[in-house]
Amino acid sequence: MSYDAVEASPHDGRPILLFEFVQNATTWRYTSRGEDVSALAASWSAVPIEMSEIEQGSEMSKNNLKLSFPRDHAFAAQFVGAPQEFPTSVTLRRGHEGDGNYAVYWKGRIMAASLDGPKAVIDCEPIFTSLRRPGLRAKFQKACRHCHYQRGCWLNKDDFAEQAAVLSLSGLSLTVQTSQPDGWFTGGMVKASDGSMRFVMAHAGQALTLLSVFDTLAAQVAEGFGYGQNYGNYYGGIAVTLYPGCDHTIEVCDTKFNNKPNYGGWKWIPVKNPFGGSSIV
Q1: pTM of the model
Q2: Are residues 112 and 38 in the same domain?
Q3: For the chain, where are the E strands, in sequence order?
Q4: What is the reported pLDDT for 4?
Q5: Fewest C-beta atoms under 10 Å: which of 20, 198, 229, 274?
Q6: What does DSSP assign to residue 270?
Q7: For 155-182, what is each residue's pLDDT tens digit?
């Protein structure tokens, strides 16, 4: 019997929901049934997942789907209180017991997660939000409008990468072996061996201040891979990749990155409006 026939039947339908989450090469598969399900050449683990109503409307931003997991569930917990390292897609499939046909019922991506009593609530937005297109997004401003190492800037961050050993890590404070001048990595990034990154808020000496706690790197440091010192030089330890930052001024763009032709700002904007005399800065 076809999926449509079972779905429309008042008696034969016994719905099964399959939830698939994909983040890079990692895939999680769950079902809201009371027992594990074998379907689509894969195993789907039973988890008490509560799902909000699926709605369709004219405003895509209001058609979100909320999935509620148990508060202590490991999958949901990783999205609570920490920024996502990589986007996680969500595919919801619906089928019926005894029927091998499963239709894609909803598709989107995880945006955020929060705790609500005994639940961990994951907020997902539909895939159709990717159709949003900004118009006239370039801003007339003194500082460069481009995101560093991204479109418009066109710099390849790997051309400026620097390997460094981790000397210590505590909360937002990361100490690395580097001889670059103060501020060199401010506005840049730190990448761990697993590909996860953190934004650098400040750099002074060998100390970096991160935007958020670096859990994956902290776990590596906690495993005991220490470092030593021989003839004044550090060796061993956890290695990270550092990318220098940019303050979005034309001077830094030119002297630090030799990227002046791609500078996205207008340094010589007048402070006063030449037509009316009011401030335009």
Answers
A1: 0.59
A2: yes
A3: 15-23, 26-31, 37-39, 42-46, 50-51, 65-70, 89-96, 103-116, 119-126, 162-170, 173-176, 189-191, 197-204, 207-210, 227-230, 233-236, 239-243
A4: 57
A5: 274
A6: -
A7: 999 999 999 999 989 989 999 999 999 9
Task: Tell me, yes or no, whether 22 lies in a domain.
Answer: yes
As a whole number of angstroms, the distance between CA 267 and CA 247 comes to 13
Would you state the pLDDT for residue 66?
93
- Answer yes or no: are the C-beta atoms of 32 and 19 closer than 8 Å: yes
- Mind listing the pLDDT tens digit for each residue in 96-145? 777 778 888 899 999 889 988 899 999 998 887 665 555 566 778 889 99
Q: Is 133 exposed, middle or buried (0-12, 13-18, 19+ CB in 10 A)?
A: exposed
CB count, 10 Å around CB of 190?
23
Within 13 A of 74's CA, how many CA atoms are on the CB side?
2
Residues 11, 121: one domain? Answer: yes
179 and 115 in one domain? Answer: no
Range of the domain at 77: 3-131
Strand locations in 171-267 (E):
173-176, 189-191, 197-204, 207-210, 227-230, 233-236, 239-243
Q: Per the domain annotation, does 241 fall within a domain? A: yes
Domains: count for the chain: 2
Question: What CATH number does residue 26 fall under?
Answer: 2.30.110
Whether 36 is in a domain gets the answer: yes
Phi and psi at residue 87, in whole multiples of 5°?
-65, 145
Residues 148 and 172: their CA atoms lie apart, in Å, by 22
Do 84 and 190 belong together in one domain?
A: no
The answer to the question of residue 51 being in a domain is yes
What's the rounded Cα separation, in Å, for the pair 23 and 40?
A: 19
Q: What is the pLDDT of residues 17-65, one digit of tens each?
A: 999 999 988 999 999 888 998 988 899 999 999 999 877 665 555 678 9
Cβ–Cβ < 8 Å for 3, 51: no
Q: Are residues 54 and 109 in the same domain?
A: yes
